[in-house]
Design the sequence.
């Protein structure tokens, strides 16, 4: 697989599609996201503005239908929902977030800035292994097929793929 354009950096090394991933027990997505063709898991993209004015995006995914389960979480430098087919970005796996962030907008305690929801949707398909996942997200206005490939501990390449018919 050839990776096209690296849109932004999130302090992850440059992705290499053929690299053998290191074991990632703490931030491994496989146990966090079930696999299946008929899923209905909430996902949200938040713009997080820090007190110094800098910003990034937090991509949060509901791992189960249980309402209070912590959310699988990634830090992104750019919007995920606007990636075109063949584009990719780096995602840094960060600590799980509370489920309240699926609907919360506003200031974050401890003077950690503010969050605003940019996009929300549903993960309707997830297939793969603990180091390579294929997802379909149904956003408000369209569906998006993504491939996530673990590059190194906590660093993932997220690739927008052509829509599966």
Sequence:
């Amino acid at each position: 697989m050839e990776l096209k354009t690296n849109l932004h950096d999130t302090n992850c090394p440059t992705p290499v599609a053929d690299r053998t991933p290191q074991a990632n027990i703490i931030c491994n997505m496989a146990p966090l996201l079930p696999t299946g063709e008929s899923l209905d898991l909430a996902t949200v993209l938040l713009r997080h503005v820090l007190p110094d004015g800098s910003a990034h995006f937090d991509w949060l995914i509901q791992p189960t239908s249980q309402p209070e389960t912590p959310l699988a979480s990634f830090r992104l430098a750019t919007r995920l929902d606007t990636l075109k087919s063949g584009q990719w970005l780096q995602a840094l796996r960060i600590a799980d977030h509370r489920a309240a962030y699926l609907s919360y907008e506003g200031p974050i305690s401890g003077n950690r800035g503010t969050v605003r929801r940019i996009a929300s949707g549903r993960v309707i398909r997830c297939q793969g292994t603990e180091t390579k996942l294929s997802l379909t997200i149904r956003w408000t206005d369209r569906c998006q097929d993504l491939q996530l490939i673990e590059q190194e501990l906590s660093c993932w390449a997220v690739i927008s793929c052509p829509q599966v018919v």
